[in-house]
Amino acid sequence: MITSSNYDYLLGGKDHFPADREAAEKALSLVPSGRELAWANRDFLVRAVTYLAGQGIDQFIDVGTGLPTSPNVHEAARSVIPGARVAYVDNDPLVLAHARAMLADSADVIAVRGDARHPCDFMTDDAVRKLIDFCRPVGVLFVAVLHFVTDEEDPHGRVAAVRDRVAPGSYLVVSHITSDGTDPAAMNTIQDAYKEASAPAVFRTAGDIARFFDGFELTEPGLAGVAEWRNPDPEPAPAAVRFLGGVGRKPGDGR
To answer: Of 13, 52, 178, 237, which residue is 20 to 30 A from 229 by alpha carbon distance?
Structure first.
């Protein structure tokens, strides 16, 4: 299965740790289409950020970012708005150390420690509040991270806490593995592999994933496969594991 910390390896990058390579190779042994799935999800992120920047969003919070893999949020946003500001959030200190070194020369781009399970912590972080103006719309990304938050940890409540703190006109971006359309054998294999992990993989139905957008208005085309979302020339989606993605806007002006 794909986690934020082994994306770089799956995407063919050079900035990853030995443990990432081991985890990625294990994932590929379970789901051979893992590389294609990683690229489909990364391309969804780029299209979503580019779309938001096209709507005038010039500040972003990327939760559970993992190692900065190109193209990343600040690169996609700045292709539209050169002065876009980005706060990357991750709970892995090694990822943060590496990210800060890579981003040292990037003005108005920061990496802070935080966890999707505790959104109030990173949203009240001094560095984040200095960079991000919460009185204006912001784009918040939970890309390939909420399926590592168990139901007992209340992922919908965590996203709702973010929704309640951002200004009207803000956007939410979510991608998430789904049990709908996923090969049951692949799902069982992945769940067995992760059941002893600190962050087990949680497959949710499309309905459960849509609930993350409560209080937001889903933009067209709604919740869709990540390979298809606003993609004019989609490649066939990897068959074994299905990823859904969507973008929602908090009603109101907020500008």
So the answer is: 13
Number of neighbouring beta carbons within 10 Å of residue 11: 19
* pLDDT tens-digit readout, 189-227: 777 766 655 667 899 999 999 999 999 999 999 999 999
> What's the pTM?
0.87
Secondary structure letter of residue 255 according to DSSP: -
- Residue 237 and residue 228 in contact, taking contact as beta carbons nearer than 8 Å: yes
Question: Is the separation of the CB atoms in 229 and 246 below 8 Å?
Answer: yes
DSSP string, 86-152: EEEEES-HHHHHHHHHHTTT-TTEEEEE--TT-HHHHHS-HHHHHH--TTS--EEEEES-GGGS-GG
User: Taking the domains of the chain in order of start, what are their residue ranges?
Assistant: 33-249
Q: 33-249 sits in which CATH class? A: alpha beta
